[in-house]
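REQUEST ID: PR-0412
SUBMITTED BY: lab tech R.K.
PRIORITY: routine
TASK: structure prediction, single protein chain
INPUT:
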Amino acid sequence: MSLRPAGSELIPATTREVAWAAFPKGSMAIRIRDELGVLFTDDDFAEAFSTRGQPALSPARLALVSILQFTENLSDRKAAEAVRAWIDWKYALGLELTDPGFDHSVLREFRLRLIDDDMGQRVFDAVLERAREAGLVRGGGRQRTDSTHVLAVIRSMNRLEKVHETLRAALNALAVVAPDWLLQEFRDEDGQVRWRTSQEQPASSARLISPYDEDARVGVKRDTQWNGFKIHLTETCDDEAPHVITYVTTTSASWPSPSTGTTTRSPARKARSASDGPTSWTRAAPRSSRSSSPGRTARRVPSGLNAPEPAFRAGGSLCEPGSNTRYSIRPASTKTALHGGPATAINLTRIDVWLMGVPLAPTRTSHFAALAA
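STATUS: complete
OUTPUT:
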């Protein structure tokens, strides 16, 4: 498919008039459009399209629809219906009220194109840049680091069930993947095949836990154990600005979590592959709740150093309504390639709440800390 740039900088007069009549106090989509302007342009996605062939729908609009879809937790079909029916979405997209929209299958094709061309980070970065231009994200401010779990789309099994399911999967795949899996569970000693003991099994970082997803691993964090992956994020945590996620990456569930705390770092980052894993963690003051505790001394890190890459927490979590980040969608690494989408949706929601003047939720105090107060 070929790209034919279609500008969305101007909002049709009729759409503007009807939208403000229907939403006199505005809506998230309207406020984001008015405060941040056009988030994406077709030129941002030009390298993913050829110059010849059938014209494609505007990738800039499809990117915004995908982010709005995350904020509302809509299926592809419902998101396509929203483009046709919701006035504030037409306002944000710069569409005429009579625009018929598109078929819902286009959204899935667009996501696959983003994955194939490794452009998911570009969508995330574009919103950060608009927020920076609007003065909502500043270099040298405070940020905090954390990680959370991502569940693999697999059934949890005990060791015996894993072997049975592996044999069935191996037969279905004509024994292409069976040898590596069986070698993990069995051991040949002097011609006798025996069951491997727990001590003889590979480390968790190398141990397969499902014959259907070879990238999924066992993860443990505090009292939580899961099968799948781990997502790491960084968010700003200054009191005088919205808490915006500035970095997101997904790794194996066996990757160690960063030391949580508060650091200083410019929001501008160089994107890295999720397979690289988190690097150069910088220890900081321990955190006992989701937001900064009064009087806590944060360790400052000079701007520009490789301080905590991933992170997040306060002011909301990855479990915010509509994010669906904890459930991956596609097999192997492509399954988590678009986690920047929910993170971007969370950013837009937080910026919208900030623009409406809604204060942050108060810091939660543990029972032990309350006794000392």
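NOTES: Residues 159-212 form one domain.
REVIEWED BY: pending
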